[in-house]
Write a structure and sequence with these properties.
The complex is a heterodimer of chains A (360) and B (442). Chain A is mostly helical and 360 residues long. Chain A has 16 helices and 2 strands. The chains are: A mainly alpha (360), B alpha/beta (442).
């Protein structure tokens, strides 16, 4: 048994799959034990988490800054909305998500090709233009894309086998918001496993090499442009999946959902959580999902008026951001990891024999 | 990347056990649902919980964020008098920042977490459109939406739980169009339109009467603050009467551009964009103080009115609102937006009252459909509520602004969407006064 566990630890894929399985169990337990309302919040956290996960790979692992991921999410969301126009559409959600990913991947490739030639502020500027321009497309093609009002997303009925399976496993009837939460979190787990594998393998090493030193990466035989474009495409694909989940959750694809604010929110999520860490992206997404409503509720129960309570949320969010950057500049996960490593090093110097295999 | 899981086995076992426990517990939990279904959500013997979504933060917040404060003050006033059928009204306001995605989230919260009986007065066309189907599917009344789009009342079959409140933009366009055709037949008309339902519906109405007088049509996208191309477009076509259907910010922006380019047509702003106090303060802010922001900024401009506003302090309704605001309001003055919220709250209290002691969602809808047209209230023209139409107030009068006050140019004119004729209102809605205690009874 012990040998097998050690083997599993050594094998990256097996380890990620194991983590995914644990994650899946946690998701089932959590989703089943909370209210419908909390489940819609969970679904929101899932789409923010997926997009932030993709962005953290791009920014943290490959060193490219994107201010346009909100726009890429918009492409995923609009693709889903166009595929789910009314309740007659019999397309399974998994195919819708794949279609959203595929379309976003194509756009991501085009943007990535341009982005690969740019650095730092220029790259930020180019992706910023994307964030500003994409919502405008929806306004321009009003007939097909619904203009300011956006497109409605009609969720198809939950397939019977899913209902049966859900009842078999949990003994409860599956409500719609639970279903959406499951779809969101299953997608998140799949995306995270893929991202984690990519980052841990050869592709990830190339991305990191390009991030750390272009010249030495090139000397080592890495094609810079290719590494950059591939990172951007992977990241865009994740954003596309996130867009699809957003469409399922909100049941609407409207330009006002995909403003620059969304792109900046994603960036804030990965900075809060810790650049380059998928767990950090998830923590950042959780903060962004739950912090505003918690703060508003606290404000209201403390006797503030509705307007003051509503204004409190962005204030606290700003303060948390400042606090994290001042106290934990590597983000929450980054700083925790640093602290753990430091204590491990201290332990190692005192008793070197006991720490075998703890440090990375 | 090499995180290690120690003791993974026990963790899985714990999770599996928890899962198994949840599965066992599920059978018992379901049975309680049957009893709960008999009760109407949000209603107890002594309370009724309602909710609304408004832009309290963000670009749309100035002005609009005052609407729920007015409604809240009026509900507090009614609660102090004992509520409606002995029920206190608990009004929950959520911020959606005028973002339909957020509207969807916070409306979910209202329905699932706060379990509101109905949403009342929630604001915005794109925002409320994003939740209309959801609310109707869930059977939650979407009462008195704060928007003049047609979709709140013209499709009762598909949206049986949705009701409009203010006059729709098409009717407003018709009334304005007919007045222009009769009184300014030689004017070269330019249209300045917000490029969404607001502009589209209004243009449909206006064109019924002055189609051949229109020389220029300019549209702007909400959010883009540069309207110089549109205003120059109107100027180039020599339009000498501009009918503008836009939000208050764009009244200020278009006035500023016109000042800069020396364009001086007769301006006619639809009700939604013509609050003199707000436009004045916006003008001062946008011009960084170069333009004096008092309420004379819109002198000579024409507009419409469907409820009495703060410029009419002698009106018995405004006196009631002033009293309510003094007793229950927050900081700040009584404004037209607060009056808007109070007028809407008044109509909802009427609906609650008419729905009777045994309050259900269906009962509320039925009561509004049956009695809504006869309700006295601050509105100048009666509501159009019936089993076939959930459209709100049926008409308005045309005013010219002078020193922040409106000087009526017409009687109250009423009409409906489509080909309905425009007539002078004879229901006497404009002349009624509130009941002694300020709380409507049926």
């Amino acid at each position: 048994m012990r040998d097998r566990i050690t083997a599993v630890r050594r094998n990256v894929l097996a380890r990620h799959l194991f983590l995914a399985l644990v994650g899946l169990l946690v998701v089932v337990v959590v989703v089943e034990s909370i209210s419908d309302y909390r489940n819609t919040q969970l679904a929101s956290m899932a789409y923010l988490g997926i997009a932030a996960g993709g962005l953290t790979v791009l920014t943290g692992t490959n060193g490219q800054l994107s201010l346009g991921h909100g726009a890429l999410m918009a492409i995923g969301a609009y693709t889903s909305a166009l595929l789910l126009p009314d309740s007659d559409s019999s397309l399974p959600l998994s195919l819708v998500i794949l279609a959203a990913v595929a379309v976003t991947l194509v756009v991501g490739a085009a943007v990535g090709l341009a982005a690969a030639r740019l650095h730092g502020p220029y790259l930020a500027g180019a992706t910023l233009a994307l964030a500003v321009a994409v919502p405008g497309i929806a306004l321009y093609f009003k007939e097909t894309l619904g203009g300011e009002q956006g497109l409605r997303v009609v969720m198809p009925d939950i397939p019977v086998w899913v209902l049966d399976l859900a009842f078999f496993v949990t003994g409860q009837d599956l409500s719609r918001s639970r279903y959406t939460a499951y779809v969101g979190w299953l997608t998140l787990i799949v995306v995270f496993v893929l991202l984690a594998n990519l980052s841990a393998g050869r592709t990830g090493r190339r991305w990191r090499a390009v991030r750390d030193d272009e010249v030495s990466a090139e000397l080592a035989g890495i094609d810079l442009g290719r590494a950059r474009v591939s990172a951007f495409m992977v990241s865009a694909a994740a954003a596309g999946a996130a867009g699809a989940i957003l469409a399922f959750t909100v049941k609407l694809a409207a330009p006002s959902a995909f403003t620059l604010t969304l792109s900046l929110t994603l960036l804030a999520a990965i900075v809060l959580g810790g650049l380059g860490s998928l767990a950090g992206a998830l923590i950042g997404a959780a903060l962004l999902t739950f912090l505003p409503s918690v703060v508003t509720d606290v404000g209201r129960s403390a006797g503030l008026s509705d307007i003051q309570a509503a204004e409190l949320a962005p204030l606290v969010y700003g303060l948390v951001m400042v606090a994290v950057i001042l106290l934990a500049p590597a983000g929450i996960v980054g700083s925790l990891r640093g602290a753990v490593q430091r204590s491990a090093t201290t332990r190692r110097t005192t008793s070197p024999t006991t720490t075998k295999g703890t440090a990375s | 990347m090499t995180r290690h899981i120690r003791g993974g086995g026990p963790l899985v076992a714990t999770l599996a056990a928890t899962l198994a426990l949840t599965a066992c517990g599920a059978g018992g939990r379901d049975s309680s649902d049957g009893e709960a279904a008999a009760d109407t959500p949000g209603v107890t013997d002594d309370t009724v919980t309602i909710g609304g979504t408004f832009p309290l933060t963000g670009v749309a917040a100035p002005g609009y964020s005052e609407i729920p404060t007015g409604a809240q003050a009026y509900f507090d006033y009614v609660n102090e008098q004992g509520g409606v059928h002995g029920r206190q009204i608990d009004y929950i306001v959520k911020d959606d920042g005028y973002n339909p995605t957020t509207t969807s989230t916070v409306t979910n919260e209202l329905v699932l977490k706060d379990e509101v009986f109905a949403t009342v007065g929630s604001l915005g066309t794109p925002t409320q459109a994003s939740v209309a189907d959801y609310l109707n599917d869930e059977g939650v009344p979407q009462m008195m939406v704060s928007s003049g789009s047609l979709q709140w009342g013209d499709d009762v079959e598909n949206r049986p739980m949705t009701f409009g409140w203010q006059p729709d933009y098409e009717s407003e366009g018709k009334i304005i169009g007919q007045w222009v055709a009769e009184n300014m037949p030689d004017a070269k008309v330019g249209l300045f339109l917000q490029d969404d339902d607001l502009g589209e519906d209004a243009e449909k109405g206006v064109r019924q009467y002055v189609d051949d007088q229109i020389v220029a049509v300019e549209r702007y996208t909400s959010g883009n603050t540069d309207v110089a191309p549109q205003v120059s477009g109107l100027q180039a076509k020599k339009a000498d009467l501009v009918l503008a259907f836009n939000t208050p910010s764009y009244t200020a922006l278009s006035q500023l551009v016109a000042l800069k380019t020396g364009y001086k047509p007769q301006w006619f702003y639809a009700n939604i964009g013509s609050d003199p106090a707000l436009v004045g303060s916006l003008l001062e802010r946008f011009s960084e103080g170069a333009v004096d922001g008092d309420s004379t900024a819109l002198d000579g401009v024409m507009t419409t009115e469907y409820i009495p506003g703060v410029d009419n302090p002698e009106d018995p309704w405004v006196q009631l609102w002033q009293k309510v605001w003094d007793e229950h309001g927050e900081d700040g003055e009584l404004t037209n937006y607060r009056i808007y919220g109070m007028s809407q709250a008044y109509a909802f209290v009427q609906a609650l009252d008419a729905a009777g002691e045994d309050l259900t969602r269906e009962g509320l809808v039925e009561a509004v459909e049956e009695g809504g047209t006869d309700w006295d209230g601050p509105q100048l023209a009666p509501f159009r509520y019936s089993a076939d139409s959930h459209m709100g107030i049926s008409g308005m009068r045309i005013l010219e602004l002078e020193g922040g006050k409106g000087k009526p140019l017409t009687d109250v004119l009423v009409t409906d969407i489509g080909d309905a004729e425009i007539t002078t209102d004879d229901s006497g809605s404009a002349d009624d006064a509130p009941p002694e205690n300020g709380v409507p009874t049926s």
